[in-house]
Structure formats: C-alpha cells, structure tokens
C-alpha cells in the first residue's frame, strides 16, 4: 500500500506525464499539418510566445489556448482538453468569492494562503480584455480571454554609446552601435532581464494590455523563458489615473485598497512591504501621462522614494511618448522602450483574433460564415488602401476598423476624424436602432443628445486634468444639463440618464463602483475638443497647448472648428509660441500638425504656420528628427532637400521621413536614394521596416549607389534581398537559419555579415562558402559555440557580443585576424592567456570582457595595435604607453576620462574618443596623458551635458568634435573651426 507521500508523488508524476503528452500531441499535429512556428500563431490567432509555451514550455496552456490551437490544427479539441484536465492539480479551479480559504487544507501559513488567493484574484480580474465593438448588442460579451486576445507588439530601444567605431571615427550604426540605431524586439525579448523599464506608446497602442498580460502571466507563474527573471514575483497593478484622485499616492500596505481589491483588509501585516524588500514584487505603474502635469514632479518623487526604499523590486512604468522628457527616469536606472506601430503582420493577426472572438459570440452558422468573409475582405482592404493601413497602427484603431467594417457590412469611412465620428455613431445608437432595441432603460435619447451629455463629461475631465470622475460629479454634470434638455428631463432624472449612458452609449464604463471614465482616452479627447469649440473656448485651448495632455484635444479641435474658428485658433497658437521661448518649438510644431485637419483655412494663416515650422527646419540631429516626425505626414511637405543641405541636415531629414513611413514618405525617400553620404545611406536602410517591403526595396534600396549595406529583420525582407544591388554588408536581426542566409546571398558577394539576436545559428561551416567574407559579427547569438569553422574563411575582423556559448579557444586557429571585439565572459584573467594566434591591429573589450579580465596586462603581445577600445575599468593601464603603434584610443561605457589618470604619458596616441561623459570629468587628464593629441571626440549621451574645454587651452592644434552637449565652455581658447558641435547649435 502506498504511503500518502508516495501517492502524492505518483499523482504528481501522472500530471506531468499528461502535460508532456499534451505538448507532444500538439507538436506532432503541427508537423503533420506542415505548419511553421510562424504560421501556427497566425492561424490560431495567438501570440508566438503563447504558442511556443504551449508546445515546448513548462507551464500549463490555458483552455482557450488549447481550443484555439486545436482549431488551427484542424483536430478535435476534446481529447486535448481531457489531457489538460488530467494535468491539472486537484485543487486547480476557477477562483470565486468563496475561495478565500481554498488552500487552507494544504497550506497553513496565512501569508502563503493569502498570496495564493491574490494570484488567483489577479488572474480573474485581469484575465479578460475588453474589445471595442466586439458585440454591441451585448456589451457584457464584448470581452475575450487574455490568452487568445493578447498580441505581443514590438518595442524599440535606442542602442547608443557602446559599440565598435566605424572607419570615420564615429560609433558604428550597427547592432550595439550608436547614432540613429534602435533595437526592435517583441515585448518579451525587449523586457528580458529588465528590472526597471519605462514604456512609451501612443494612445491605444497596447501599453495597458501589456501590463495586464504581465500581471496575469506573473500571477499564474506562466511567464515565457525570456522573462525568467520575474518568475515568482508578485504583481501589483497601479493605475495612476485612479491613484492620483486619492490625493497622496499609496504606500505598499495601501496598494490593494487604492485599486479597490475587495479583500484589502485581509492581507497579512507587512506582506506587500516584505515582497518589495525581498525583490519579489513587480510594480506595474500605468499611465504617467494621465497624471496632471502639476503633479508629475510629485509622482516622480514618489517613484524615487520607492526606488530608494525597495531597490530590489521590479518596476514597469507606462506613458504616452511626449508626457515626460527622454531620460526622465534615467537616473533611476530605467531602460526606455517605445511601442512600435503595428506591422502588417500584426494587423493581420489582430484582425483574425477580433473576428475569431466575434464568431465565438455568434448564434448561427450563417453569422459565423459572414464573419469569416468579412475577415478576409478586411485584410485585403487594409493591404490595398494605404490611407487605411496608416490608420490601423494601434490595437485601438484596429478594433475600431474591425467593428465599423462589420457594422457597415464591409464599407469603411476615410480619414481619422471620419473614423471616430462613425465609431461614435456605431457605439451609441446605430446598432440599437438597426436591431430594433428601443428605450431599453425606459429612456430614449437621440444621438445628438447623447453626444451633448457625453461632451460635458469629457470636457470636465480635460479642463480638470483628470481621466476619471466620481459618480456624484458625473451625476451633477448631467443634472446641470437637464434644464436645457426638457425632453430628456421628462423621461428620467440625472441618475437615470447617467445609468442609460453607462449601459447604452458604449463610451462610458465604471472601473469601480464610485468612478466613471471613457472606454478610451481618444473618445474623451474627441468629445472634449468638440465641446471646447462649441463653447468658443479657443483661448483656453491655446493656454493649455503646451501640455501634452491637451495635444490631441487641440488637433481634434481644429478638425471640429469652422473655418474662422480654425484660423483664430491657429493664429493664437503661433502667436503664443512667438512670445513663449520655453514652449516655442512644441507650439509651432503642434500648429503644423493641426494643418492635417484644417481642410479649409485662410491661406495667410496657413503660410504663417508653415513659416514658423520653417524656422525649425531642416532638422540637424536624430533628436530633432524624432520631434518633427511626431508631427506626422504633414511635415513631409515642409522638409527641404536633398539639394542645398549640409550633411547633418540631410541625415536628419532622412531620419525624420523614415520615422513617419508610409506611401507619401516613400516619395521623399526616393529623392535621397542617390546620396553618397554613408550616414544618409545607413538611415535609408534602417527605415526599411517602416515601409512596404517590396516597394521600398525596389524604389529606394535598389538605387543606393556604391557598396550597399542592408538590414534584414523579416522573412519578407529576406525574400526580396536578391532583387537588390549586390549587398556586401548584411545585418540579420532575428532567427534566420544558415540555409535562409545562403539562399538569399550569393557566396562570392558578401564581405561583411552581422547576426543579431539569433538563436538558430549553430554550425558555422556554411560560412566557408563565402570566399569574400572578411568581417563577421555575432551579437546575442546564444547557440554560436564552435568558432573553428571560421579558420577556413578569409575573415580578418571578428566581433562577439554576449554570445555565452562561444568557445574562444577556437580563436587560436584564426590566424588572419587583425581586428577582434569581445564582449562576453572570458575564461582567462589576462590577455596573455587569451588564445589568439593572430597579430592584431585593433582590439575592442566590452563591459563583460573587462569585468572578467580585471587587467590589461599582456596587451603588449600585440605590438602593432593601432586602435584600442575599452568599456570598463582595468588594472595594468600603464601598458598602453608601451604600445608604439597605438594611435587611436576609445573609452566608453564604464570607462571614462578618469581612466586616463592611470596611463603614463602616451605621445603616440593622436586620437581619443570618449563615449561616456560625467559631470565631474576633468579634461586636464587628457592634456597630461595624451600630450600629442590631434583629434578628440566626446559623446554626451546622458545628462548633465556641459563640457568645459578650458583645461585643453594649450593644445592649439587639437580638433574637437562634441556630440549632444547642451553647453560648451572654453571655446575662446581655440581657433575658428577647431570645435565642431553635433547637432550644430541654432542661432
């Protein structure tokens, strides 16, 4: 007879076997149906991470995931669901209000019992997504399980300040390089290893959904492998829109109370505090942009205090892009990520999921068949109509388009404002009217009456800098309107009218019993802008125009306004910009952005607006380019060139256009395709992902002169690679296999290959066929291990960044190497022991390499070194002066000016690049250590950005280039032309 312990062990093994069998069956079906890991998520309407976890992960797939996969694999779901049921532990069931003590039998510790309940509570509270327009006749059915609805969007992070230096002396614009380059990854990869993150994204871009997904996945312990550093964490979802209404922002023991958790009083004393101290807490702080501007400094201080008190906890904060400046939380160690617009593939996946969700609520086979037809029609329409494709860049707009397409039986409005207007009509009344639903609450309102009431609520929120209002205030606002609306007052009082708007308008919701808000900020801004124009509050609009929370309100107000109101609004806007230097750029660019919605406008006013924009043009830096691109496609008409532009201006113009993307931007990019400026060419290639793949390749990239270099991020880009001019340098980002690479590039042509974030590459033997390949980079390629096949290639330059499996003993056979870059954990403590059998002239040691080496001793084994790049502090720096041929030195990342204090005078070095600038840096060290210096380059990537050149005043022949400095002192000690600032200051 089995003991209790043995029986438990046997049951556990049985559950594991059932789970393993379920996953094996799913994998077998995928192979049998010949579906790739790209095609299966698309067909199932699931995220790639969700599918990968279901087939290969250790966690339990949800019931919705199994059903969706079964449908995609064309098999009966029941056997799979039975296997899933066998794999569930006996106590696994949906948490209900009666489950407070569900674990009391097996768990005696009150804290653990409460924590288990809390995890189930989070899964239930955030495990559903509301999907706009999913079922307008039954609002309670307009939701979909998070597992099926969540779409992993792309996040972009700037990559700057650490990387090899290009042939022109600047930081190379490649993976790990600087300048314009950004790293674009799916959310799971972008967040990998991050403990403090600020995510920026436009309204409706999916920021809140990302937080919901993280909360649920962390609560149920089903995070993807990339986010293993958050495994076991307790998530706390803190929506700032709700918290700021309480007055003081909450302390840890108040988190559950602040968000309306019904069992806040049951939490053990000190429970949240201890989780934060132990580093087991994940704070998901949503909506910095929804904090009134006057309270943001206070909010920042609240965050600072949290970071100081709980440095081990994990933090993720979201905001609209322009709500807080770049680097707002940089001193707290936050990484900044930006939600990218949805790609064509993302839109296709979203459309499929939306229609799948709608079909699950359908009551007849005929309706389900009709939805399937609408899905295919809409996909074709989005692909064929460029204007519509530009609209469907966020999940919110995608949902609106899906709902309108269904509601209008396959017909869609044109333009952003027309889309919103049609959406309001659809959500408020048309659906009820067409289904003969009359006065369901005993109250009948016309569409105009509903809009008038909703405008009052929206405008109150905007004027007061709020995104939600309490029930009493909402009732009072409705009550104030009723005397002027006797037809409504005869039918119901303010409570009845407010109840009707909540139930039937489709625009309002109650996040808690006491609060009311709009289903999305976009609708609030649209209606508030309409109310402002009708109230003739143009001065009020202009007075708040510098506030990012009013940005969309201003743009929509211009669209709502009549021609004379529009002219007055824009004239006042540019006049205020003229008088207010602090906000001038923002106000003038906002006026320019508003022109997009000014369908009829006094030509003189339009000219005035365009003249103000011209003062900001052409841009001279990537930062200015990013600011201008936020204005939207209207800025394209104002961008000059390519004739008459300085190099930095041409680079920034191309960067601006590349950020905007789309059909109109393509015509501007074509003007620059003949440029021979390497930086312009780099930006042309970097922008490929923001345009139609084939059109951009054919009309732009194929015409770039010289030896082109191409970035490939998708299978679609790979498929057109052969149609381009022979590429000699290709950067592959993502899991491209050796077969895919060899099929795309002819062996005799490729000279430089970079593989970035590639787990598919293992055997490097395929590179032996590339007889011209001299430069190879592997960046975050975790399965690249054996380097010996490279000995049979002509490679002279090799870079290895964060390739943890790489066995560097293979370097011994690469006798042709002249350039080596290493940023990985080294098994040797000195350079003397490094197994390099070649005579190097260039050496780059990254942060990880410096950390493991500790010393530069042994560097003299390469007496012909002409270039040395150090990314961290090392002992033995005196060895630098013993390198007779060393002419170029770069210090970056964790190595800065202070490093020079340990170097004896090295007169052979005539060029220094400083990739890290600190407030306390003293250039006197440069003058002492490098007395014969002829060229100095300083990168001020982070604040403070003040550089004092006075200590170098005796070096009259020195040419100095300074990037990103806000202020440069001591310039009077140098002759004209000796100092170059990038971007060039505007007079």
Itemize the secondary structure elements and their pairings.
Layout lengths: L3 H29 L6 H6 L3 H9 L6 H10 L4 H11 L22 H17 L1 E3 L12 E3 H4 L4 E5 L23 E5 H4 L5 E5 L6 H13 L14 E6 H4 L11 H4 L12 H7 L3 E6 L6 H17 L4 E6 L15 E5 L4 H17 L4 H20 L1 H6 L3 H13 L8 H19 L12 H17 L4 E3 H11 L4 H4 L4 H11 L3 E5 L2 E4 L2 H14 L3 H6 L7 H10 L2 H17 L4 H11 L8 H12 L7 H8 L17 H14 L2 H9 L6 H9 L6 H7 L9 E4 L2 H5 L9 E5 L4 H7 L7 E5 L18 E5 L17 E5 L17 E5 L18 E4 L1 H7 L13 E4 L17 E4 L19 E4 L9 H6 L5 E5 L6 E3 L10 E5 L3 E3 L9 E4 L5
Parallel strand pairs: 5-8, 5-9, 6-7, 7-8, 13-14, 14-15, 15-16, 16-17, 17-18, 18-19, 19-20, 20-21, 21-22, 22-23, 23-25, 24-26, 25-27
Antiparallel strand pairs: 1-2, 3-4, 3-9, 10-12, 11-12
Helix pairs in contact: 1-5, 4-5, 6-9, 14-15, 14-17, 17-18, 19-23, 20-22, 23-25, 25-26, 25-27, 26-27, 26-28, 27-28, 29-30, 30-31, 30-32
Short structural summary:
The protein is an alpha/beta fold and 987 residues long. The chain has five domains: 15-92, Orthogonal Bundle (434 Repressor (Amino-terminal Domain)), CATH 1.10.260.40; 119-341, P-loop containing nucleotide triphosphate hydrolases (Rossmann fold); 438-533, Arc Repressor Mutant, subunit A; 536-614, no CATH class; 622-880, Leucine-rich repeat, LRR (right-handed beta-alpha superhelix) (Alpha-Beta Horseshoe), CATH 3.80.10.10.
